[in-house]
């Protein structure tokens, strides 16, 4: 049974035995700068005897987060450059992000939106801002898909989710609604009948993209939560961030992708880590990432192969990091071609 409250302060993490004495001062400095939250379900999953525990590494503040490199950016994937109205990111013609909330049940230490999420972040869209965001979608017939992200949209109450879905259901040209969430693994008890019902909209197809990064996240409770969603006919796909010290190992990645497939979640995105501030501890090079992804081919079924994706810094969209659109140069840097055919250097030259 999951306890009610998440751990959100260094004192609470320490009291739960998740932060050794020697690391508390640095963790407090990190917590001043970036949000902290660990759900009871995840706290129970951390092996406190393992100093390199891959679950702890994702959620327990680390002194290395205090170091921001010159190439790191507050808005690494350029959301703000493509935000015509509050709460909307319109980067590609046929789809928009709808960021209704900037709160998450957990705060990942590598978060690409870490400057926007958390109690000090951009908050929840006001009723007026939501009206404007919905009107933006309704006025543009080219918008086929709405992606609810944030923050984690599944922290919203079923009543609020249902209200958003009813408004999207009334827009004929929107056919697909996709939720990006970590809730089924980090707070599985939250996935109850009322919440699942709220994810459905009349005449629309709902997809849920589940963010998980290590096979141990698939606890009995998490598997049951996923099954409750899939059993009502909602399609699930995966997203994973490739993270040094968490899943940068062919065996771990293979086990993770198999766990998704076994639970009826089709592997979709494997993200190269973004240039978010204070996240260098998680970043492997593009060459290392490509070698890892290559090692998955042949090792696991085609069902288990995700698309390895890099979000081009500056808001230029996604590129398949293992495709011909990414070329390695002689100096060890890469040249990327975005979906409009424009070339970019990676890492960016203007870092
Ligand atoms: S759940 Fe997503 S948005 Fe929230 S902290 Fe983690 S990576 Fe960031």
UniProtKB/TrEMBL annotation:
Transmembrane segments annotated in the record for this chain: none
List cofactor names only. Answer: pyridoxal 5'-phosphate; [4Fe-4S] cluster
* CDD domains, per database record: Radical_SAM (cd01335)
Q: Which InterPro entries match?
A: Aldolase_TIM, Lys_aminomutase-rel, Lys_aminomutase/Glu_NH3_mut, rSAM, rSAM_sf
Q: Does Flavoprotein count among this protein's keywords?
A: no
Q: Does the UniProt entry include the keyword Metal-binding? A: yes
What residues bear N6-(pyridoxal phosphate)lysine in this entry?
A: 318
Q: List the residue ranges forming a coiled coil, or say none.
A: none
One short Pfam name that applies is Radical_SAM
Q: Which residues form the Radical SAM core domain?
A: 90-313
A single Gene Ontology MF term assigned here is: metal ion binding
Q: Enumerate the residues binding [4Fe-4S] cluster.
A: 104, 108, 111
Which UniProt keywords are present, listed alphabetically?
A: 4Fe-4S, Iron, Iron-sulfur, Isomerase, Metal-binding, Pyridoxal phosphate, S-adenosyl-L-methionine
Instruction: Give the PANTHER family listed for this entry.
Output: L-LYSINE 2,3-AMINOMUTASE, LYSINE 2,3-AMINOMUTASE-RELATED
Q: Which NCBIfam families match?
A: AblA_like_2, KamA family radical SAM protein
Q: What is stated as this protein's family in its record?
A: Belongs to the radical SAM superfamily. KamA family.
Give the protein name, as stated in the record: Lysine-2,3-aminomutase-like protein
């Amino acid at each position: 049974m999951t306890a009610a409250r998440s751990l959100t302060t260094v004192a609470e993490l320490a009291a739960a035995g998740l932060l050794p004495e020697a690391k508390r001062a640095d963790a407090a400095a990190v917590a001043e700068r970036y949000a902290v939250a660990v759900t009871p379900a995840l706290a129970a999953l951390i092996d406190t005897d393992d100093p390199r525990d891959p679950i702890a590494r994702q959620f327990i503040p680390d002194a290395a987060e205090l170091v921001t490199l010159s190439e790191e950016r507050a808005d690494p994937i350029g959301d703000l450059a493509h935000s015509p109205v509050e709460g909307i990111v319109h980067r590609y013609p046929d789809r928009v992000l709808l960021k209704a909330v900037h709160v998450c049940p957990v705060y990942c230490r590598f978060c690409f939106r870490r400057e926007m999420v958390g109690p000090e972040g951009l908050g929840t869209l006001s009723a007026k801002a939501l009206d404007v965001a919905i009107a933006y979608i309704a006025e543009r017939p080219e918008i086929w898909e709405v992606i609810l992200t944030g923050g984690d949209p599944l922290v919203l109450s079923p009543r609020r989710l249902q209200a958003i879905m009813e408004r999207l259901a009334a827009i004929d040209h929107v056919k697909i609604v996709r939720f990006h969430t970590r809730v089924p693994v980090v707070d599985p008890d939250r996935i109850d009948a009322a919440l699942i019902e709220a994810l459905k909209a009349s005449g629309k197809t709902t997809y849920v993209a589940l963010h998980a990064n290590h096979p141990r996240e698939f606890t009995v409770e998490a598997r049951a939560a996923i099954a409750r969603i899939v059993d009502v006919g909602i399609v699930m796909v995966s997203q994973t961030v490739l993270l040094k010290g968490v899943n940068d190992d062919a065996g771990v990645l293979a086990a993770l992708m198999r766990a998704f497939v076994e639970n009826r979640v089709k592997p979709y995105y494997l993200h190269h880590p973004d240039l978010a501030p204070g996240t260098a501890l998680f970043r492997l090079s593009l060459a290392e990432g490509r070698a890892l992804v290559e090692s998955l081919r042949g090792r696991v079924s085609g069902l288990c192969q995700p698309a390895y994706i890099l979000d081009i810094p500056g808001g230029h969209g996604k590129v398949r990091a293992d495709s011909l659109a990414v070329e390695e140069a002689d100096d060890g840097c890469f040249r990327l071609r975005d979906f409009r055919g424009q070339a970019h250097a990676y890492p960016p030259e203007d870092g």
